C-alpha cells in the first residue's frame, strides 16, 4: 500500500457517512458512491470526489470500503452490471464492513481473487457516536498480510482492530457480539418492565444498575431512552432482527438465543424502524 493511498467508500448510511468523513479528515483522498446521491453532498463539501458507479470507484481507488445493509446489496455492488468486479482493474483491496453472512463474504472473496483483488470482511461493533469519534471495534477476517496493510486505515476508524482468522471470521464475530447485544437489549427492557410492574420508579432502577456491576454505557444510554420514551433509531430494531436471523442460520440454537431471536422477529413488523430498545414497547404489549 502506498503511503497515501486513494480510498473509495461505498454506502453512506448512518455509519458510512461519519466513517468515510474520518478518513477525509485524516488527509486521505476519498471517492464516494451511494445510490441516493443526496447523501454524497456533505462529503463532497468536505472534499471527497464522487463516482457514478462501484466500477468507477474501484478504477480510481487503491482501497475500497463498503458498508451496506445486507447480503443482496453486497452481491449487487460486487457482481452487478456496474459492480466492483466489472471494472478493468486488479490488485485492489476490498474491505466489506457490512454486517452480513459469512457465506456472502466467502463468495465475494473468491470472486475478488479471480479478478486479482484481495477481500477482507471487517464489520464493526459500535453505533453512530463511536463512528463519529473513531471508537469502533473492528473484527476482521481474511488474509493477514492484507489486514496489516489496512491497519493504518483502521486506526482512524476504531480503537481496536483484530484479525480473527480466514474469510468470514469477522462476520461470525459480529453475529456473536450482536447476539449478546440482543440479550442485553431484551434483558434491560425486561428488568425495567418488571420493576415498573411492581411500582418501582424507573429512575431508581437506572441508579441501581448504574452503580452496580451490571452498569455500562449501553445500559445508561438505553435506560435513559426508556425513561424518556425516546425510541428514535440509533441502531434500528430491524437491523438487529436481521442479524439474529443470520446468527440462527449459522447455528444459533441456545435457549436464550432462540428466545431473543423469536422476540425480535415478532417485534420487527411494528417496530423495525425504531431503536432496538423499542423492544420494551413490544414486551409491554
From TrEMBL:
<dbReference type="InterPro" id="IPR036291">
    <property type="entry name" value="NAD(P)-bd_dom_sf"/>
</dbReference>
<feature type="domain" description="6-phosphogluconate dehydrogenase NADP-binding">
    <location>
        <begin position="6"/>
        <end position="163"/>
    </location>
</feature>
<keyword id="KW-0560">Oxidoreductase</keyword>
<dbReference type="InterPro" id="IPR013328">
    <property type="entry name" value="6PGD_dom2"/>
</dbReference>
<dbReference type="Pfam" id="PF03446">
    <property type="entry name" value="NAD_binding_2"/>
</dbReference>
<dbReference type="InterPro" id="IPR015815">
    <property type="entry name" value="HIBADH-related"/>
</dbReference>
<protein>
    <submittedName>
        <fullName>NAD(P)-dependent oxidoreductase</fullName>
    </submittedName>
</protein>
<dbReference type="InterPro" id="IPR051265">
    <property type="entry name" value="HIBADH-related_NP60_sf"/>
</dbReference>
<feature type="domain" description="3-hydroxyisobutyrate dehydrogenase-like NAD-binding">
    <location>
        <begin position="168"/>
        <end position="282"/>
    </location>
</feature>
<keyword id="KW-0520">NAD</keyword>
<dbReference type="InterPro" id="IPR029154">
    <property type="entry name" value="HIBADH-like_NADP-bd"/>
</dbReference>
<dbReference type="InterPro" id="IPR006115">
    <property type="entry name" value="6PGDH_NADP-bd"/>
</dbReference>
<dbReference type="InterPro" id="IPR008927">
    <property type="entry name" value="6-PGluconate_DH-like_C_sf"/>
</dbReference>
<dbReference type="Pfam" id="PF14833">
    <property type="entry name" value="NAD_binding_11"/>
</dbReference>
Amino acid at each position: 500500500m502506498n503511503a497515501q493511498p486513494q480510498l473509495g467508500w461505498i454506502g453512506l448510511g448512518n455509519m458510512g457517512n461519519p466513517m468515510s468523513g474520518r478518513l477525509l479528515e485524516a488527509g486521505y483522498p476519498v471517492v464516494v458512491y451511494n445510490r441516493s446521491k443526496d447523501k454524497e453532498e456533505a462529503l463532497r463539501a468536505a472534499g471527497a470526489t464522487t463516482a457514478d458507479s462501484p466500477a468507477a470507484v474501484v478504477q480510481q481507488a487503491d482501497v475500497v470500503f463498503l458498508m451496506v445493509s445486507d447480503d443482496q446489496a453486497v452481491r449487487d455492488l460486487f457482481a452487478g452490471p456496474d459492480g466492483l468486479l466489472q471494472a478493468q482493474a486488479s490488485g485492489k483491496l476490498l474491505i466489506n464492513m457490512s454486517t452480513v453472512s459469512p457465506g456472502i463474504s466467502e463468495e465475494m472473496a473468491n470472486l475478488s481473487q479471480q479478478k486479482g483483488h484481495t477481500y477482507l470482511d471487517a464489520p464493526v461493533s459500535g453505533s453512530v457516536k463511536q463512528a463519529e469519534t473513531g471508537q469502533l471495534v473492528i473484527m476482521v477476517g481474511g488474509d493477514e498480510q492484507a489486514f496489516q496493510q489496512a491497519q493504518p486505515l483502521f486506526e482512524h476508524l476504531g480503537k481496536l482492530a483484530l484479525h480473527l482468522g480466514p474469510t468470514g471470521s469477522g462476520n461470525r464475530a459480529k453475529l456473536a457480539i450482536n447476539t449478546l447485544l440482543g440479550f442485553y437489549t431484551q434483558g434491560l427492557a425486561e428488568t425495567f418492565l418488571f420493576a415498573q410492574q411492581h411500582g418501582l420508579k424507573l429512575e431508581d432502577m437506572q441508579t441501581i444498575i448504574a452503580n452496580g456491576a451490571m452498569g455500562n454505557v449501553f445500559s445508561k444510554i438505553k435506560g435513559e431512552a426508556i425513561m424518556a420514551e425516546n425510541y428514535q433509531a440509533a441502531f434500528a430494531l430491524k437491523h438487529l432482527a436481521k442479524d439474529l436471523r443470520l446468527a440462527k442460520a449459522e447455528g444459533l440454537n441456545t435457549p436464550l438465543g432462540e428466545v431473543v431471536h423469536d422476540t425480535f422477529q415478532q417485534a420487527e413488523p411494528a417496530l423495525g424502524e425504531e431503536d432496538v430498545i423499542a423492544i420494551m414497547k413490544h414486551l409491554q404489549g
